[in-house]
Design brief:
Elements: H1 6-30, E1 36-38, H2 50-61, H3 69-83, H4 85-116, H5 120-134, H6 139-188, H7 210-228, H8 231-237, H9 258-261, E2 271-273, H10 277-283, H11 285-288, H12 307-326, H13 336-363, H14 366-400
Parallel strand pairs: 1-2
Helix pairs in contact: 1-6, 2-3, 2-6, 3-14, 4-5, 4-6, 4-14, 6-7, 12-13, 12-14, 13-14
Length: 408
């Protein structure tokens, strides 16, 4: 350890801290491993993840839980950004100090590159000594970013539970409507409890009355469709152009099929248990095959219009550019492989986060894509306001400063 250079020791500290935070993140997610929902009872159990619980509480507080969950996501994101604002301010302050330190160091760094360009080890030692002297913080800039990534994945786990919870609620409500319609028709037709189980159901209808059963099934499926399309149920799922905020803003159908709700297909969804494929498709038949249930294109095949994924990429890229522009970057090596490698690394870092945001926005629920969009938009507005305030402070200080003294 004593033979390690300052830069290597600092990198090792960052890697160890990143590993520790990653372990903490995994532990937080692992504490909420129950991502399945049983629909066998009358009511669906509520989510166990603390982020999902917070979203559910917030949703119930907004219009009594009958409003669009999309607006709940917007409010949730703003509240979360406010809670994390000290971290944002810390990162901005460190970035601002780094930028000023780099302005002071730039001539010296360029002189060091010219003097020790052929001796990379000596150049690195001299640069790190200068960074330490001027208090240029590499650790301070990395820590807030690492914590932000941890929060990202913890929030993602909460949204995953919320998606499964809503799928379970929608199906449970549809199943209750279906059973009530069937049982009421059987009772009105004068059938008795033939199987002795204490309730009237399809098993109390003799086999010779198959025509009655077919008519009752058709009416029950129509009742399910009407209930599913009612303003009360649709209001929770609908948000602006997206028909079902719990499904991706993409080419997926607004009404999830059996393989999606049971976790056999799709992304970021919890698993519904206690149902079979035949049962699900019998109850949801007219909802699954009806354009009025929501969707664009032929037979309502598209739930969204890919707007949120595109906006997530654009805003994430802008946010990355603003962040990198507010930090003091070391001067580029004069030429050769080092310059090319540094340029490629900087370009890669500017694209990694936007591409990742695009993937999440495209493949996961519209609710999570809306969270990423709102979070990025809030971050950009915060950066712009912080930069304006910083410039005003610099301008105020420069007016009262002695022009012969360098401002630190």
């Amino acid at each position: 350890m004593v033979d390690l250079s300052f830069m290597r020791r600092r990198k090792l500290q960052i890697y160890l801290l990143a590993a520790l935070l990653a372990i903490c993140c995994l532990m937080l997610v692992a504490c909420n491993t129950d991502i399945s929902y049983s629909v066998t009872g009358e009511n669906v159990s509520e989510p166990t993840h603390f982020m999902a619980k917070f979203m559910l509480t917030l949703n119930n507080a907004i219009e009594g839980g009958k409003g669009s969950f999309g607006w709940t996501v917007v409010v949730f994101t703003i509240i979360l950004r406010l809670i994390l604002s000290p971290l944002d301010i810390w990162q901005k302050v460190i970035g601002r100090k780094n930028s000023k330190a780099m302005e002071r160091m730039r001539p010296q760094l360029e002189a060091l590159q010219a003097k020790y360009g052929d001796d990379k080890q000596r150049l690195q030692q001299e640069q790190m000594a200068l960074y330490k002297k001027e208090k240029y913080s590499t650790m301070g800039m990395c820590l807030p970013t690492i914590i932000t990534m941890v929060v990202f994945f913890v929030v993602f786990a909460g949204f995953r539970q919320m998606v499964g919870y809503q799928f379970a609620k929608d199906y449970r409500a549809s199943l209750n409507t279906f059973n009530e319609s069937i049982n009421m028709q059987i009772e009105d037709a004068g059938y008795t409890d033939l199987d002795g189980n204490g309730t009237l159901d399809v098993y109390d209808v003799p086999n010779e009355d198959a025509a009655f059963l077919a008519t009752a099934l058709d009416k029950a499926q129509t009742d399910v469709l009407n209930a599913y399309n009612s303003e009360e149920q649709k209001g929770m799922r609908k948000w602006l152009w997206i028909h079902n905020i719990f499904v991706g803003d993409n080419w997926s159908k607004a009404v999830p099929d059996f393989t999606t709700v049971t976790g056999q297909k799709g992304w970021a969804t919890s698993r519904l248990t206690g149902i079979t494929k035949d049962e699900y498709e019998r109850v949801m038949a007219k909802v699954l095959n009806n354009k009025d249930a929501g969707g664009y294109g032929k037979n309502g095949s598209w739930n969204g219009l890919l707007i949120l994924p595109v906006l997530s990429i654009v805003l994430s890229f802008l946010s990355t550019k603003l962040l990198s522009g507010s930090q003091g970057q070391p001067p580029t090596p004069p030429s050769g492989d080092a310059a090319a490698a540094q340029g490629q690394s900087m370009k890669a870092m500017q694209w990694v986060m936007p591409v990742m945001m695009g993937v999440f926005g495209l493949l996961y629920s519209g609710a999570f894509a809306l969270y990423m969009f709102t979070s990025s938009l809030t971050a950009i507005l915060f950066s712009l306001v912080f930069n304006i305030i910083g410039k005003l402070i610099d301008k105020s200080r420069s007016k009262g400063a002695n022009p012969n003294i360098a401002v630190r």
